[in-house]
Hints:
By secondary structure, the protein is mostly beta strands.
Amino acid sequence: QVQLVESGGGSVQAGESLRLSCAASESTGCMTWFRQPAGKEREAVAAISMGGSAGHVNSVRGRFIISRDNAKNTLYLHMNTLKPEDTAMYYCAAKSTFQPGCGGDWEIPRLFSYWGHGTQVTVSS
């Protein structure tokens, strides 16, 4: 069973930056960052394949960058120019190494087998 542990969340002012990390206990396939604002549904933010191909949703494209270090089994989310609407609990999710690519369905939470417990990001105006 893959264990995922997120870190790096916090409270910042609008316009500032944060870097989230997600440490995996072993190698994984496609990895995705999701977020869930209070009282709302979980939504995808960005995904990256084992080979490094990445995708970002429109609301964060140009501000957030997903990356991964396979040697360290660690996923990152570099978040720049943060906005109050980015406030949410951020989760990392992963598929097994049998699914190295993310394909066109990386925005669907139920397709991911492994989840972290989340890290809170709060952006004030």
